[in-house]
Give the backbone structure.
Amino acid sequence: MSDTWLPSLLTSTPEEGFQLAVKLSRMGVKTTQPDVEVLHRLRPDYSQNADSLTAASQVVAINFQTVAAANGYWR
Amino acid sequence: MSDTWLPSLLTSTPEEGFQLAVKLSRMGVKTTQPDVEVLHRLRPDYSQNADSLTAASQVVAINFQTVAAANGYWR
Amino acid sequence: MSDTWLPSLLTSTPEEGFQLAVKLSRMGVKTTQPDVEVLHRLRPDYSQNADSLTAASQVVAINFQTVAAANGYWR
Amino acid sequence: MSDTWLPSLLTSTPEEGFQLAVKLSRMGVKTTQPDVEVLHRLRPDYSQNADSLTAASQVVAINFQTVAAANGYWR
Amino acid sequence: MSDTWLPSLLTSTPEEGFQLAVKLSRMGVKTTQPDVEVLHRLRPDYSQNADSLTAASQVVAINFQTVAAANGYWR
Amino acid sequence: MSDTWLPSLLTSTPEEGFQLAVKLSRMGVKTTQPDVEVLHRLRPDYSQNADSLTAASQVVAINFQTVAAANGYWR
């Protein structure tokens, strides 16, 4: 199990859950473009484009819904 | 716990829940672009673009779904 | 409580719930652009652009999901 | 009750539920642009643009999620 | 009942559920543009545009959420 | 059953669930553009476009919500 990047959706805290949502979002990108060199080349442009940043935040928000539900919203 | 920006998804009121959704949306942006200088530079443009504002509102709406569910919709 | 714009997600009817979803969508815009003058200036353009109107309707739809769930779908 | 456009989210059949989702999507547009003349003027363009049609279908899909859940998926 | 295109959200298998999600997505397009001639004319362009294809897949994904929930995820 | 690409939404692990979400996203594309030649021709462009990659990740995130729910979040 240790060789998986996603052993569980459970996290100790909401903040760790948010970080997991970020990780899921990035893995969603990597399944389409696995070449890290290319991803690094793209970063300067989109990370300075407001609409690209909003779109990235939206993917994190969708993944955070999943992680939060999995954790019973850490209640 | 005091050094986390997201100690809990629970809030006292719906309005505080909405503010938390706004915060989650901004943190989604900051994970991609942590440089506050850059973010401030981008703001004049996108905050005067209707489509960018609608997109920002959409991310808040998605995060508000999560926060509202976590709080049992404050019923 | 009277000084909050969002005292509750509960509404008497589905139609009032839809109006609340519209309100939530607009508040999502106002958190990014609080200047009402600017918002009024933007309106003529995007309110005559079909894609902008569809995007606005989408945000309302997402917020309506939240409000409808909060109200047990008014069953 | 007869003077409301949304008396209930309940419908007799899935197909009627889908039509209600379409209605909700159009009302989402009308809250931003209530002028029917303008809406008719916009129609020829976006109804012949594939991406606009896909976006419209997406809003219907989101509203259909709400209507279907309200109706217990007509099981 | 035989004259409805959507008699039920229930399907025998997940794959049939996915096909129903595709059908729902297309019906969402047809409610805006019922002219099949126009739809056929648009197809060559958007079916060779990666972003249009991704957008179409997103609508299917949203409708598949609804169909899968309706079927108790075929567990 | 062996001749179906989607026998079940159930997977052994979260990581396999994520891969299934990727598969669902690609099948959503293939229902619109079944010609694999065309899809391969499109790949170099969109896989080097940050916004296209974010959009692809978003579709995966939506499908992952479905798969995760189907699996009880692998708790």
Summary: The CA atoms of residues 41 and 66 of chain E lie 30 Å apart.
